[in-house]
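Bench notes, bay 3.
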Amino acid sequence: MNEDKKHRLRNIALLVLVGLIGGTFAFAAFNQQAINDRLRENPAPVGARVHDYFNRQTENKDVFVENYGQEPIMARIRLSEFMEYQKRGQTGWIQVAGGDRHDSSTWTIYRPEEGDINSRSAVDGSSNFTQYSTLTFGWERDNQEEPWYLPTFNHDSIDLTTAAAGDAQDYLERGATHPGDGKDNFWQANVSYTNGQNDIVWPGSTEGTRTTSQNLRQERNPITLQEWRALRTEAENDEVGRNKQIGNFWVMDPETGWAYWANRLNPGQATSYLIDEARMEDAARAIQGSYYYAIHVDSELINVSAERFSHEDQASEALEELLDRIRVGADGNASPQFPAPVRDFTFSTMRDTAGSNRIFTVDSPGEPQEFRYLENMEGGYHWIISNSVLTYTSWYEQEDRMDAWFDEELSLEFRALVAPVAESFSTGDVHDSRVGGTTGGLQISGTLLSITNLSAYPEVAADRTRVVSEAEGGIPSAFALSVADVQYLTFGTSSGFANNLSDRMAASPWPNIWWLRTPATYPLFPQLNSAWTIAAGTFTAASGFQRSHTISNLGARPALIIHQ
């Protein structure tokens, strides 16, 4: 593909520190020199902006990428450094690792040791900078939630200015281009800012108002490509190991210095920080004279499906694997094992590939809650189910138990997304044809996956869960699935259970049995009265599971419909 046809953003940033021993310090940040994001023939733009928040007094330095466009992107960033010093009384400058101050293409690319992103390697003199500066990768704070940021006003895909705040200076504007003082945690929740207030007009929409959003939760600190490969160990099954390798974190390739966001970046999302601080060390302050130190940031942001990074055809085997995994296996959401706040998930992108439905884990007030994604119901509604069984719960108790789980185990933020469903259901009542010698009843296929005569019992067949508006009496709540729900989710258009016994089983406890809401009454043998369950993935209403039973592997499995 012709380079001019690629939808690529190339962002160039400079972080410069000049110190005069015995005098004052001057710290200036020159941000992206160019952001060449363009519209493709498709009218939906692929657009992104690099944010740079810097404060001279505190030396806070936050660098991350925001996707303000309408399509997912892939992102990579590369750092290079330059430093030279002049001893007092001398006229010449001595370079720490070569290069020309005025030509950033000659600067030294930051290359880490293969096993430690925080340790510079000796390749091309990268380690020469270690005694003078320390870069802090990632963002990690004890007992603090993810930082907030103000989304960019600038959605102009041909405008080259960037979101530089505080003491940061955009390379073109030679000053700040975004509100804020550049200090750590300057932006907080639910803060709105209108462009033009306080008689300051920032580049971008002159009539726009933005409300603060949060960066994605960092799943792990930035790691090297070799550490990324090691996440998939021989001790784990293939799926678990692969799941750990895709998520919301940065991976740096020591060979080239490029750091890759190990996921798609969906519209409206902002990455976690690649850099949180660039701190000068005592050796720099001890120089008897002056010094100049700068960081150059080069980044490429591309369309996921249609484009490739520059020189991607020269990628190593490990890097090729990473990029292929992002393109084919990533959906922009946190990895299944990582508990993320519900705001971090984009449910419309969750995959439901047959045989491998999406598992995700939501951070909650108590224990993290793991879910299976079942179906995109259209209109912004999504059907999900807990991946655990609330055990020691009888059929009679399951509604109360699920109500308590809903109120106590889900965050307010999560509960606010839950759509209303009927307060009660017309379930019908039908027994298992295999039990008790009673004629009639639901017949189960030889594979134990399906009901072969569901249409013979219209009331049972019609008991399908749907959204019921609150005006019609619906309430936001958790609910048990019906026989008809499971049949549909196994063989319907969604295939939420993927025509697979294992997908119908919860993850814990193991093995497990979970109640459906459909009762099974045996008129001639009331002592056998039960309810339908999913036992090891199969339909059954056997007499061994009486409605009053409470045992260690039997219970309720709450489902939800959410709206996003």
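Next record in the batch:
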Amino acid sequence: MSSIDPPAAAEIRLLLIGPPKVGQSSIANVLAGRNVFPIAASSSSSKTATKSPRHYTNKTILSNKHLLIVDAPPLFVLKNSTSNEAEMKSLAECIAYISPGPHAIFLILSCDDKKNDLFDMEKIVTTVFGSEALKQSIVVFTNIDRLTEKNISVEDFINNQCKQQSLLDACDRRYLTIDSSTNDLTKHETFIKQALILLNNLWEKQTIFKSDMFNTIEKELQHIEQHRLQDLLKPDTSIVEQGAMKLAVREQLRDDIHSHRELADSTFFTLQTHLQTIFKSLVQEVARYFEENIASS
């Protein structure tokens, strides 16, 4: 990604959300411009497995800004959701990575609706992040090559056959499609160009998504950052150097959240009240779903 007019920030943060086995990590690699997210790790996981979120920062790809891509774990499987601590900790880690909030959210779904059967993207996003998050989101349909095999045009699929009309409307019809039959990053230039156009249009209206949950964790992270910066900043440190140091400290902090149990537990504790409310809502939605399906069967 290169030709773009991003928000006036030193770092651009993109969050990817999707059910298992729809090519989410492949999309992350396309956006990163290199294969940095292991694809086998997510594709081989079960539908209920908890996988740690993964992040990658490219320091040169986006107009000399840091491009942070967070590949969220497949813990948003609504109809199989449980309120266990492992899933909540994984979500806490993901939120800490993308704090103080994403500049854009990519909602990854397959053109094969069978792969989306266990997943209500709109309900999950609004439950976890709030309805305002959809105003900062772009829907990405993978496996578009399968439509070609069936002689179905993208327009026909989007307008007539896709079951995600409510989600598309909530995202102001922002969507992308990608051929998932190849992992050759050089063959995805059209996808990147279209993504840049949508991102530019999105950022004309709003540059970053924030919520009380992000505000809560950001206060905690900034407190830790200030403590670490005390040993680095000198009286004659320039504003440019200060900005670079803050980015470096935040990058290290993200790594430490994953590798240091004490810091990970602190992050979870900070967000615990928010997460308990979220998972309570998810469990209620699970019960409602099964009641409706039993009644209709």
